[in-house]
Amino acid sequence: MQSSLADRFYDAAVHALAAFGMLLLLAPTFVVLVISFTGGITLKFPPSSWSLRWYLELLQSREIIEPALTSLKVAGLATLLSTILGGVAAIGLARNQSKVARVLDALFMSPMVLPAMAFGLSLLLVFNVLGIRLSVATLVLGHTIICVPFVIRMVGASIQQLNPILITCSLSLGASRWYTFRRVTLPLIKRGILASAFVAFLSSFDNVPVSLFLADARTEVLPIKLWAILEGSLDVRVAAMSGVIVIVTLIGLICAEAFGGVTRQVGAR
User: Fold this and answer.
1) Which domains are present in the chain?
2) DSSP code, position 37
3) pLDDT score recorded for residue 77
4) Concatenated DSSP letters for 15-32?
5) Contact (CB, 8 A) for 236 and 40
């Protein structure tokens, strides 16, 4: 009887802590979404009136649309490069137990360990030493570096779940390594690749520290532009843009879960 009461108390405490944690995580997003539908001219919660005014204003605001398009371009290129490079690295390191493989794995994971601001500053210093001028290309390169670790971890998790007997059987039946990779390995790890690409895109699109150091004077990315607008005024367009990002991200997450199993790939490691 006492054991049953203790178990119930434990379950209730765990559920209460989980609910509290979810509330802390979701409350800011909920507040931003609600504010974005205000009919007023300032950021106020709860809104005194409701309107789609600021979403319509957003469609006509080149000041925000152009940095958003730049962020989409940079994130798309960084996602493509990081998926290719990280996928190749994951295939080579996933089941390799050598010391060299462990050293390389730690090296590839270093961008996740270093403080983001320190990493962005370090990249800036490296480019200055090499005499490379800041441009969209340096921004894409910096974003690629920070996205590669996510791809390696998630694609590596998919490879770890892959039954090695399937590859052995394909090779023993006379198939080449390229044919085995293309017709056996790649289809089986496809979900992990898609999920890692989605996470890499979000990491690049929302990145501030690297963008802050590596963007040139003519290149404006969305997160930094929104921050600059908020420093000058409590512009409701920022809340509207944030609402668009939240809604699009939620739709993308649902699609990624349906087609790529993103939560399974993240939790597999």
Assistant:
1) 57-267 (1.10.3720.10)
2) T
3) 93
4) HHHHHHHHHHHHHHHHHH
5) yes
Alpha helices in 51-185 (DSSP H): 53-59, 62-93, 99-113, 116-130, 136-160, 164-172, 177-180
pTM of the model: 0.79
Residue type, 268: A
Neighbours of 157 (CB within 10 A): 21
pLDDT in tens, 71-87: 899 999 999 999 999 88
**For residue 96, how many other CB atoms are within 10 A of its CB?**
13
Q: Tell me how far apart the alpha carbons of residues 102 and 138 are, in angstroms, rounded to a whole number.
A: 28
Between 94 and 188, the more confident residue is 188
pLDDT tens column, 112-159: 777 778 888 888 888 888 888 888 888 898 899 888 888 888 888 888
Pairwise CA distance, residues 203 & 113, whole Å: 15
